[in-house]
Specification:
By secondary structure, the chain is of the alpha/beta class. The protein has 7 helices and 7 strands; from the N terminus they run H-E-E-E-H-E-E-H-E-H-E-H-H-H. It has a 7-stranded mixed beta sheet with strand order 1-2-5-4-6-3-7.
Length: about 230
């Protein structure tokens, strides 16, 4: 073999070795910087109260079409309004509706008014509330549906405050962030929560939720440091 051929072979070997080293370093870098897969919760928080607001659990009967008993991961909190302005249309009446009315196949997880929260479905079960049918990772299949009461006899401001506390509590329980707090409108296009949107209070309400969330996170840190 000629000297030039030997030199050329050595250069090729050196170049190949260098490329292999670069490839190994690149693979290691990608492994280090790769974000871990998101772990989504799939259990029920079994809330009994949210601060001083009682949570009354009265699950829909498993034989009802309103409760498909499909367990799933929790990826969203989906906010609605009942859109029922009747004086008596508080959380109790909506709970009664879900248990007695057979004219519709709709369901959600919580109803909130100015004094109480009713819990209708386990958080880790599908409910029919987001208007997006069985869309993968959609509001129905992976969202917790929360209905806010707008009854005339109720205090709407207090209902918003109670709902913000419930949402913040669920965010902590299921490791969700503000980006995972959605409206019915985000999944189906329906203007819901109607009153909140039409009165221009969306930003205010989201800040209310964030404030409660930050408060609970701070309390969590203090408890851990004890």
């Amino acid at each position: 073999m000629k000297i030039n051929d030997k030199r050329q072979t050595k250069k090729l070997i050196l170049l190949a070795s260098l490329l292999i080293i670069i490839l190994v370093v690149l693979i290691c870098f990608l492994k280090i910087t790769k974000k871990p897969e998101r772990a989504w919760a799939s259990f029920d928080a079994n809330l009994e109260n949210v601060e001083d607001i009682p949570v009354i659990t009265n699950f829909i009967d498993p034989t009802s079409d309103r409760r498909p008993e499909i367990e799933r991961e929790i990826k969203w909190i989906v906010i609605h309004e009942t859109d029922n302005r009747g004086s008596s249309a508080g959380a109790l009446n909506h709970d009664t509706f879900l248990h007695t009315d057979n004219s519709q196949v709709n369901s959600w997880h919580y109803t909130v008014d100015d004094s109480v929260i009713y819990h209708h479905l386990p958080d880790n079960e599908v409910g029919w509330h987001a208007g997006d049918k069985k869309t993968e990772d959609g509001g129905n299949m992976t969202g917790i549906g929360i209905e806010m009461c707008v009854n005339q006899a109720g205090d709407y401001q207090k209902t918003l405050e109670n709902t913000a506390k419930l949402i913040a509590t669920l965010m902590i329980a299921y490791d969700l962030g503000m980006d995972e707090v959605k409206f019915h409108q985000d999944f189906s296009g329906k203007i819901c929560p109607h009153r909140l949107i039409t009165e221009g209070r969306v930003k205010e309400f989201r800040l209310m939720i964030e404030k409660e969330y930050n408060k609970y996170k701070e309390q969590e840190k203090q408890n851990e440091s004890k």
